[in-house]
Amino acid sequence: MAYPDIRLIALDLDGTLLDEAQEIPIQTVETIQEVKQRGVIVTLASARPLCSVLPYADRLGITAPLITNGGAYLVDRDQAKVLLSKPLDLGTFREMARFFEERDYYIKAYSNERLFVQEATRETIEYSSRFGVPYTEVGKKKLSALEEPPLRVFVWDDPLAGNDALELMQQWSASFAFARETGCGLEVVDRTVSKGAALKAICREFGVPLSHVMAIGNEGHDIAMVQAAGLGIAMGNACEELKRCANEVTKSNSECGVEHAIRKYVLK
């Protein structure tokens, strides 16, 4: 199948651009530099907060707006221009947080630069260290008292143990959008938020038709972005739902699937 010339590439980070060591393979860095030299715009699209995305943007010399917090916050590299900021409704967030706090779920609430938790668990400490996101403990059952609405929330559950937050979350489906990021956990954002909506905002900013965009991802929260792009690519290690939605499937993140896709569909 023939695709239009690609003028913009949007890349998810974890499980897509990054290998299992949380690094960008050097050959992928070189390929991205090559495609940038041809005038193709490259951006990153991640569920991570901005502070955790910036080091990778710097590694690649990306100056285009960055999609962070699952699409809830879209800003240029120097944070001089915010194209989109859509936090959760504060009142509805407090209601949801109170509901899950009372049932002893582990919840993380994200701002641009910080993670808020009731109490720091081993997962909190490991996440903070691995992803470079500082955290603040607010106290047991006090997340629902946050004064500023978060951009994104993560609710940890274990469906195999009968502890399924997805079913419980349905009561807020009119306000929130949610998708599984891992086997155990739900990413929660405002219902109007998605990586796909943020990608459309970038395209409007640069005057690039979506038909000339390539987007690559591997998880449920990448589906809207992959579907919005003229060429949507699923990683070889992607979830089956995303593979069904994608135009093409590339190699896995441990096999430099991003580099393979860029060379095959962009550099040709």
Characterization of the model:
With 268 residues, the chain is α/β, with parallel strands linked by helices. It folds into 2 domains: 8-85 and 194-267, HAD superfamily/HAD-like (Rossmann fold, 3-Layer(aba) Sandwich); 90-190, 2-Layer Sandwich (Hypothetical Protein, Haloacid Dehalogenase-like Hydrolase, Chain: A, domain 2), CATH 3.30.1240.10. The chain contains 10 helices and 14 strands. The chain has helices at residues 13-17, 26-37, 50-60, 90-102, 122-131, 165-169, 195-206, 223-228, 240-245, 257-267, and strands at residues 8-11, 41-44, 66-68, 73-75, 82-85, 106-110, 115-117, 135-137, 152-156, 176-180, 186-190, 213-217, 231-234, 248-249. The strands form 3 sheets. Strands 8-7-6-9-11-10 form a 6-stranded mixed β-sheet, with helices on both faces. A 5-stranded parallel β-sheet has the order 2-1-12-13-14. A hairpin with a 4-residue loop joins β3 and β4 (73-75). α2 (26-37) runs parallel beside α10. The radius of gyration is 18 Å and the shape is globular.
Count of DSSP E strands?
14
Compute the number of structural domains. Answer: 2
What gap, in angstroms, lies between the N and C termini?
13 Å
Given as residue ranges, the uncertain stretches (5+ residues, pLDDT < 50) are: none
| Mean pLDDT across residues | 93
- Which sequence of strands runs across the widest sheet? 8-7-6-9-11-10
Q: Which sequence of SSEs, written as H and E, runs from N to C?
A: EHHEHEEEHEEHEEHEEHEHEHEH
Radius of gyration: 18 Å
Major sheet characteristics? 6 strands, mixed
- Portion of residues in helices? 25-40%
Query: Given the C-alpha coordinates, what overall shape results?
Result: globular
CATH domain fold name of the largest domain: Rossmann fold
Please give the CATH class of the largest domain.
Alpha Beta
Strand content: 15-25%
Structural class: alpha/beta
